[in-house]
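Hi all, long-time lurker, first post. I run a small reading group and we've been trying to get comfortable going from sequence to structure in the token notation. Rather than ask abstract questions, I figured I'd post a concrete chain and ask someone more experienced to write out its structure so we can walk through it together at our next meeting. Sequence below, copied exactly:
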Amino acid sequence: MLELETAQLAAFATEIRAHVRGLDAAFAGNLAYWSADP
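-- Answer (accepted) --
Happy to help. Here is the structure in token form:
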């Protein structure tokens, strides 16, 4: 049982990291948009 929960927690951590990377990319894109000269 503990092994299953540990595996699920690891998978959840991986999923969260992927979402945070997506937010980072979106934030960087937003900064690039607003930093560009018209």
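A couple of things your group might point at:
Residues 2-35 form the longest helix (34 residues).
The helical segments are 2-35.
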